[in-house]
Amino acid sequence: VIGRTIFGQMVDGTLPQNLLATLTRVGLGLLFGGTAGIVLGLAIGASHRLRVIIEPFIAATHPIPKIAILPLILILMGIGESTKIFVAAMGAFFPLVINTAAGVRQIHRIYFEVAQNYGASRTKVLLRVILPGSLPAIMTGLLLATNITLLLTIAVEMVTARDGLGASIWLAWQTMRSENLWASLVLITLLGIGFNLLLR
Predict the structure, then answer these.
(1) Among residues 83, 101, 115, which one has the least CA distance to residue 44?
(2) 34: burial class by Cβ within 10 Å (0-12, 13-18, 19+)?
(3) Would you give the DSSP letter of residue 149?
(4) How far, in Å, CA of 176 to CA of 123, rounded?
(5) d(Cα 193, Cα 141) in Å, to the nearest integer?
(6) Structure confidence by residue, pLDDT tens digits, 107-150
(7) 180 vs 31, 150, 159, 169, 175, CA distance in Å?
(8) Quick one: angle between helices 81-105 and 131-160, nearest 10?
């Protein structure tokens, strides 16, 4: 039944439309939130002074459930597309900033000393020492960020969107069409598996 439902949604075009909408929001959330998280994480990891200033704010805001502040975000930003992308970006930001900073801090000091002894500039230290050394932690953060961003995107679509897999789930619940609900859940599961396989 689920397979037949998915095939029917593919034929009538609702599945590609909803899938594209969700993937677009996830992608933009990862782009904006992930880029900001990586850049700030590199800066925090490389600068003790910056870490002392910024880490308390991250520690204070990270535990707040992003869904819990969704009503506040809706009041401030409305229910447009920018709100959905902003929520997705929040999901990407925190795992990447935390993992990137931790990845930079675990790089042994001897690598920085060797680079300095060879007269490496700050740019070369960043490109030849910091980025390669922190890359495993960044990839772990990206894996977490992708899953959280997908989760938040689905959640915000259920509340504010007219398209996307989250909106499809909400419509299926409202119309009591369990086959559509299960079809959407299966697609989300496949997306999660696909993201994990791709990043690994």
Answers:
(1) 101
(2) buried
(3) H
(4) 58
(5) 16
(6) 888 888 888 888 888 888 888 888 888 999 999 999 999 999 99
(7) 30, 19, 18, 7, 10
(8) 160
